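Customer escalation, tier 2.

The customer says the design service returned an amino acid string that "doesn't look like it belongs to this structure." They asked us to rerun it and document both sides in this ticket. The original structure tokens are below, unchanged.
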């Protein structure tokens, strides 16, 4: 097998292996740098936090991973919270994507 997978966290480096994430039924390809940083892909951090119901309900290990991920990817907590809010609204109200007009038809 000489196929090299790209890191699913930073999308910059080649992955060195695939690891499981704590509490998430998903395996992700990591490069060495991301593996040692204890981070996860941005969308996983956002989606999982939304499913939990926000970071206020998350376990300390998950909060740590999210904070690591935000810093590692050069994002901000504000951007993260905004993304979580958007996903949370989609989960709670899946029809809202079509807009109010669609619903009244
Ligand atoms: Zn990486």
């Amino acid at each position: 097998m000489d196929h090299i997978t790209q890191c699913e966290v930073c999308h910059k480096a080649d992955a060195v292996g695939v690891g499981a994430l704590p509490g998430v039924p998903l395996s992700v390809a990591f490069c060495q740098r991301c593996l040692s940083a204890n981070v996860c892909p941005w969308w996983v951090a956002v989606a999982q936090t939304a499913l939990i119901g926000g970071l206020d309900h998350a376990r300390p290990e998950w909060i740590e991973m999210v904070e690591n991920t935000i810093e590692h990817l050069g994002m901000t907590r504000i951007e993260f919270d905004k993304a979580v809010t958007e996903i949370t609204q989609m989960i709670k109200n899946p029809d809202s994507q079509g807009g109010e007009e669609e619903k009244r038809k």
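Tier 2 assessment: The sequence is consistent with the input. Residues 7, 9-10, 13, 31, 33-34 surround zinc ion (CB under 6 Å). The longest helix spans residues 77-92. Sent an explanation to the customer and offered a walkthrough call.
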